[in-house]
Design brief:
- This protein is of the alpha+beta class and 149 residues long.
- It folds into two domains: 92 residues, Jelly Rolls; 40 residues, no CATH class.
- The protein is 23% helix and 24% strand.
- The chain is built from two helices and six strands.
- The chain has a three-stranded antiparallel beta sheet, with no helix packed on it. A three-stranded antiparallel beta sheet has the order 3-2-5, with no helix packed on it.
- The chain is globular, with a radius of gyration of 19 Å.
Length: 149
């Protein structure tokens, strides 16, 4: 979901990552939080491949955060801010859940597809690691190729 961050009091640093950086931000499958504990101090090799934008927010500032842009926030002092989220797609594309407090659940198609991936992997049960790697690698390459719409 898209988001507007409104800084009320104090100041904070916000780092934004474009959607293309997702593979370098160490998000476990199906998670909305990175495994990186403090992205502001982390020196991971993966982060060298990212393209962050950084901004400081002061009282009265408003920052638009587009859908799929991951962000990290570092408060420079005690501060108060308000987030306003909204959905930019029709409701049928969102996973139906009652416990999506932050509005950051993945889209329904992604959640359903993750279940299908588990079924695909089960199809290779009993084969050697090399055989699994070969065929699952081919399937992965097909998915990447298909995604180049």
């Amino acid at each position: 979901m898209s988001n507007i961050l409104i800084q009320i009091q104090g100041s904070k640093k916000v780092r934004l990552y474009p959607p293309s950086d997702i593979l370098y931000l160490q998000f476990p499958p199906g998670s909305s939080s990175s495994k990186i504990l403090n992205i502001f101090t982390e020196k991971s090799t993966d982060l060298k491949n990212t393209h962050p934008y950084e901004v400081s927010l002061l009282p009265g500032d408003i920052l638009y955060i587009p859908a799929f842009w991951h962000h990290a926030i570092y408060s420079l002092e005690p501060s108060i801010s308000v987030n306003v989220f909204w959905r930019h797609l029709e409701s049928q594309y969102y996973a139906t859940t009652t416990n999506d407090v932050y509005g950051n659940r993945d889209l329904k198609a992604y959640e359903v597809s993750r279940g299908l991936i588990k079924k695909i992997v089960e199809n290779f049960k009993g084969l050697s690691g090399d055989e699994k790697k070969f065929y699952l690698g081919r399937l992965g390459a097909e998915l990447i190729d298909i995604s180049k719409i």
